[in-house]
Amino acid sequence: MHRAPPYRLLSGEAGGRKRQRPGCGGKRTTLPGVLCGSGRPRGASRGARRPTEGLCHKFAMFGDLFDEDFSILSSNQCGKPKSKRKDPELPNPRENTNLSGIKNQGGTCYLNSLLQTLLFTPEFREALFSIGPEELGSLEDTHKPESKVRVIPLQLQRLFAQLLLLDQHAASTADLTDSFGWNGNEEMRQHDVQELNRILFSALETSLVGTSGHNLINQLYHGTLVNQIVCKECKNVSERQEDFLDLTVAVKDVSGLEEALWNMYVEEEHFERENLYRCGACNKLVEAIKSAKLRKLPPFLTVSLLRFNFDFEKCERYKETRCYTFPIQINLKPFCEQTQLDDLEYMYELFSVIIHKGGCYGGHYHVYIRDIDELGNWQVLEEDGSLNDEDKDLKETENDKEKDNPLTILKNILLEVESTEMAVDCLAQKFWEKKSVSWNKKYRKQYGPIRKYLQNNSQDFLLSSDGSKVRLNDQSHYLSFGSQSQSHLRNEDEKMSLGKASTNLKEHFSESHWFDLNDSKVQPIREREIQKQFQGNESAYMLFYRKSQMMRPSEARGNPRYRVPSHLLNEMDTANIKLQKKREECDLADNNIDLHLHICSHYKFCNGALHPLHSQKESVLDLTFDKRKTLGELQQAVFQLLEFWEGDLVLSLAKSFPAGLHIYQILEGDDSTLSSTGLFDGADIFVWNGKEVDGVEVQTGIDHEPFLINVLRLAGHNEGRKGQQFMESQHVFSCSLSLRMICEALTSSKGIILKSHSGSEKEADNWKVIPEEDMEKTLRAVGLTDGCSILVLDSHDQSMVNVTGGNLTAFTHDISWLQVKKICNLEAEEMQVKITATVETMMSDIRIKAIEEMQLDKELVNNSCLRPIGKNGKLLCPVPEDYTVKEAELKMGSLLGLCSGKAPTATQLFLYFIVGHDLQCSPEKEIVVEETATVKECLNLILKKSDLTGDDWHLRKIDWCYEAGEPLNEENATLKELSICNGDILNVAEGKLPPKGFLKVPVWWYRPFSQVKHINNIQDQVNCISKKVGPSASRDLPTFLQSEVDLCYVGDIEISGEAFLEDLKIQVMTLPSIQEFSIPLPEFLRVWTMEKKQPCKLLRSNKEKLHKLKLGSRVEICIEPLFKEENLGPKDLLLRILMSVPGERDYYHPVDLIWDISKECTASALRGKIAAYYSLPVEKIEIAKYSPGKFEWMPISSWTQQMSKKKKKKKSDSLQSSPYSLKDGDIIGVKNLLIDDNTDFSTIKDDIGKQMQKQLTIEKTRQRESVQNDCFHEKKVTKHRKPEAALSISVGVFS
User: Fold this and answer.
1) 918 vs 243, 1036, 1118, CA distance in Å?
2) Chain center to CA of 367
3) pLDDT single digits (tens) 495-525
4) Distance of CA 666 to the CA centre of its chain
5) What tens digit of pLDDT does each residue of 243-253 get?
6) Which long-range contacts (C-beta less than 8 Å, at least 24 apart) are formed by 405-409?
7) Which residue in 367, 390, 691, 770 is a FRET match for 258, CA 20 to 30 A apart?
8) Where in 1009-1041 does DSSP place strands (E)?
9) Which of 191, 356, 364, 598 is catalytic?
10) CA 1285 – CA 1282 distance, rounded (Å)
11) Predicted structure pTM score
12) Quick check: is 109 catalytic?
């Protein structure tokens, strides 16, 4: 019934994780008095993690049992004005409650609920604040190797200060969870809040060792209980004392908290008869009494409810959702060993209830909290008078349900009688008199006979031994919400003293302020709302009580700054000033709208719409204008902007359609503001003379809108792509044209036009024939809209139309034909037939019919199956024989392959596998295994099929990104247990798996071509690269062309995840292939991670632990030798600079340029850095970034900075953001305009690379189309729940 003190944590304390947001930018025109430009670039970062010290002890109870339920909703809507994008760094201010919520990081609602409870425990909060920086250290010193900063309590102090003082809607726990040592996966996985409570307290105790707060947890939460056994013969007492920080009480078969405490600390267990106790004093088996009592009560009592149990019959977990009551005030005197103190010493009051909503395999936490210091604004609607009609109806419905509750009716009848007992027959008669209907007629069908109902509710009613009489259970009077007397108090003096204590506290509790804190959402509630959490899927899970006699000082009431340290007050005040300033700036920016000016001289009018003469970018001028200004001021600003304009200048509201630009009304009223005229952000304005464009009169208004019509025709067998049903073309018409004119333009006089009346083109019922009498109507009159589709049928297609009914008789709802291609014998002539089928045709019938039409051997009837062929030519999993065309999700014209081989059984799996690390080039093979086969058995089968030997192999599952995932470590686990399904792809990788906690890292020797002898002839260079990488890699030759590197495999190393980067370099230096180069020190090596045989991420800081670098079990590294020592800082960016050869499409050898981006990472800064390196004027160079995967160069221009001189930006556009995404190792080309005016950065090698990529794509497509495989039956596999994971907090070692 009780829990031992929590274990101590003995691991390293971790710091933050660095995060950044990309910037954005754009071009704007600047006018006097007019604000023009794009949004400000944004960015945010947090400090890097501190290396972990020691070991990490893990604690698990329910693991990730409580997965959070959440969804992501899109607010993007088409056809509406675009809204201003708010600064993601700017949080919303607090709402009316004046309390701050906590953001959910994905699955941290359990953490948020506990943190809010600790925050609203004033004594805990103030005790934590009382520990100063001189004892805890400073967060600024986290990265210093010699410092011992107690990060967890510091981050908790900072979070509490933010929740109390920072004017934001919700605070973030990211810094706190980083200090726990959690990664992104841990923050997305939810755990048990009771487990977290113990682990967090233990982590705080360990963090506060050697400080004035070392005893903080024990002072507030520590209590003791004593277990006693009393011998009935010699009266010897044997006792054992236990410590506790929280009490765990049963929920099953218990009506409430007080009954559970009574069973634990008042009820006695008797050892008698066959169950005797061996007394140490008597030295024999004797009768004895065992009991337990609370010896020392803590100031704060935490109660954990055991709502989750295990059903051993069904072998599954379940949640106790029955009613479980608990009082607002509770007297613990009956449960204590010492009872001579004043009654107030035993009185506790409820101040927090953590609630779990959901079942035992998923849910959500939130918390009800009493605001003891009245820090929040508690305003709840008054009862009845302020309720709206809907709430009143709901309340009346609840009252009616309560009146019809048989439990309530029977209780009221028994309470009305004078005697304590009543005959059951008499009770039934009283029920009939009270409700004017008998029990059998009203409730028998639902609850059974009245006597059975009384027996099933034994917690409320007590039947006599013969079942003839009934009385109320005494306990039921007391086990109710807010009860101020206890369920098992038998002593009248105790009842009187308890009533006296309750009277003294009545005024104190008369206006308790309760709030529901649900992650970011905070709302006030009434105290009676707690009753709703007694039972159901949403019910109380943890209870927090405080001693009633603990009163708060008057100066703490309504004062969130009370006892907050001065350095945190200053930090929060400064942050609030910055927030207020940012909000004022955003408010100012909200009044600016972006207008798109379309100049008439850049447009022509044709096909009923306006079209730009040049590109859309050149024809549109973006203007940012204050919407509080008038139309006259806007017209004047446009007139000043267009200095060449002559004649009248008219501004008209326009709208872009798929058919082109269309003009609506003219903007009139020079004194009207832009907001009053309805101009919105992103509006299109056409600037013209109000009459004509390029000499052509333009019809304006809604009656002349241009419609873009999709004209569909049925595709023939040789038209369109495989399986394509329509041939589609687009035409532009004015909505005022008649349908007859359109019909003459599209088809012959005998043609028929159908329209889709529901917007769906995939069902025959959605197409209706346009009758002859409607042919003279306009497009708008017959219901056609912009972008809609019409179906045009020629005379030979009209057999599909029921002209009388006006609809299609057959369409995509009934598949007209499928294609079947013979793949079972590649040596014979290629054959392909079309099989007529409907959606209900069985796949077995299609297969047999295809065999007959292709006149193949009858043996294939029992030894073949059909497999869909994908768009890329790949054979997919076999289609089950008993599937229909509809169940197989096949469309008209779908291509199937007729393959040899029997279908697999229901217990077999069809799997693909790839041998080797090169997943892109190695061919996929197929195999069938039993789902009960183990990983080791499956590996042996694959090795046997691939003619491979040895034990130096392991399996990995390839994910949806076509990358090898984590290895399948459990060799004895079955494929079914590991959720391996039909169609999954496995990777057979070479090498044994390393021990747990170690990494097996393949090492490559990496030299850029700056260190390789220059090869003049480009084709020789290509051939040279092919020879170096060998035949396995030569298939993907463009990869090596683009990288310009020399890679050589030098061996593998095994190293602990706790080792430093410097240790990895030292171990690499011991490899035989490396020793011959005589590397003097680790600082002369540069380490890169690799992806797809390419250097990817540069690893910095020799003192960083490998697990902090998040290398993973699949990592490969390459080592680059250096000529001098190198220690790159966190803000140093390594770039490869290529200077072009004048007059040639080639470059000199690349040089490494280390660029400090701590101040700015903009195009102008990079140009200045490169110009200074080559001693050239900035305006006389051009630079471009090389994209190896595309063999393309992207010019880097600084026009955004040049155009924004009048609008000062706080931050410039970062090159690390889109579209450049500059990172370590990127290649930058440089053109010297003093001697070379050619701005084309491409080389001959780029042309060769593009051509080889194209040939490689064609070759791979051909290989896929010619692959012959066995075909197998696809089996559906039940989705398993993900495995549970332990919860842990990393804590530093402090002595």
Assistant:
1) 59, 10, 16
2) 23
3) 444 444 444 444 444 568 999 999 999 999 9
4) 47
5) 999 999 999 99
6) 406/439, 406/443, 406/447, 406/453, 407/457, 407/460, 409/434, 409/435
7) 367
8) none
9) 364
10) 9
11) 0.46
12) yes
